[in-house]
Amino acid sequence: MELEEALDKVEREGYESVGLQGPAGLKGEMLEIAEELEDRGVEPLLLAEATFGGCDLADHKVEELGGEALVHLGHSPFYLGSGEVSGDNIDVLHVPYRLDRDFVPVLEEEADRIEEEKLGVLTTAQHTENVDEVMEWLNENGFDAVRGGKGSRVRNEGQVLGCDAGAALSIKDEVDAFLYVGSGKFHPEQIARHGKTYVLDPVQNNLEELEALSQDEYLQQQYARVLKHKDTENWGVIATIKEQQPGTVVDYVKDKLEEHGKNVHVFVGDRIMESDFKGFDIDIFVNTACPRMVDDFEDFTLVNPEALNVLDEVRD
Ligand code: SF4
User: Fold this and answer.
1) Residue 51 alpha carbon to ligand 1 centre in Å
2) Domain count of the chain?
3) To test the ligand 1 pocket, which listed residue (124, 163, 295) has its Cβ within 8 A of the most ligand atoms?
4) Are residues 192 and 279 in the same domain?
5) Range of the domain at 261
6) I want to staple 74 with a disulfide (CB 3.0 to 4.6 A). Which of 23, 32, 107, 283 is the partner?
7) Is the pTM of this model over 0.85?
8) Whose CA is nearest to atom 5 of ligand 1?
9) Distance, CA 247 to ligand 1 centroid (Å)?
10) Which of 196, 188, 204 shows the shortest CA–CA distance to 122?
11) Of 209, 235, 259, which residue sits at a domain end?
12) Within a 13 Å sphere around the CA of 81, how many CA atoms are in the beta-carbon half?
């Protein structure tokens, strides 16, 4: 949904109080939108905490404050394992905030760096509208471009999330390399685990191959963390109250660790900050919240649930 559409809907529905939530990069825009809401006679409830993804909705908080809807900026709807879209207790209006960029000049300048012919084109919510022109240019200039499929947590073709590379996996066997349209490393790192990945970056105005761990290297890194603690008695499990995050594996993790003779303590939180886990005398935690947090801890070891499989291999 575009911003104007969302604001019109707020007005049409006669909402008097509406939450406004966005990622760190859109804080300036949030204030402008808040003023627009006020001009339309709607009270904005500004969420100062940045949102990390479509999984991270403030719908419950806004409802508790008496808000009737939430305008969520920067992300598209996030689908739960059940196939339901997250955030259904109040009206959630997703405004991905598409960035209109012209990628053709960068392609003209830099596409000769691409060695492969058959390319799988992928992006995030911000650039889904640009994928057509990128593919058209590629197909007119000697490449064979294929759009990514649909992931399990998003419904736009070719769109990836930091926790959902399904769009890439769906075309992995058809292409020689991936071309990610967008900036930053967070999303393309996830793609690059599954094959050679180029990043067509509208902020840096360049096109480069991304160096990142393969899926196998990533798993080996996780296994090594677990093996270092295979004789550690006390383990923590981190669960999130964000129903939208993939946190349904707590029981599996707890059972698995207990099967291996560990004392397990489950911690529940909203924002997961490493400093909150100090003082418990636990050195290793299994993360069942956002899987991309796994490299965020510095003083404690953090692993994702799949890393526990290695415990079965070293069972006494
Ligand atoms: S779970 Fe993590 S990677 Fe997935 S959408 Fe949420 S913040 Fe992004």
Assistant:
1) 10
2) 3
3) 163
4) no
5) 215-313
6) 23
7) yes
8) 53
9) 11
10) 188
11) 209
12) 6
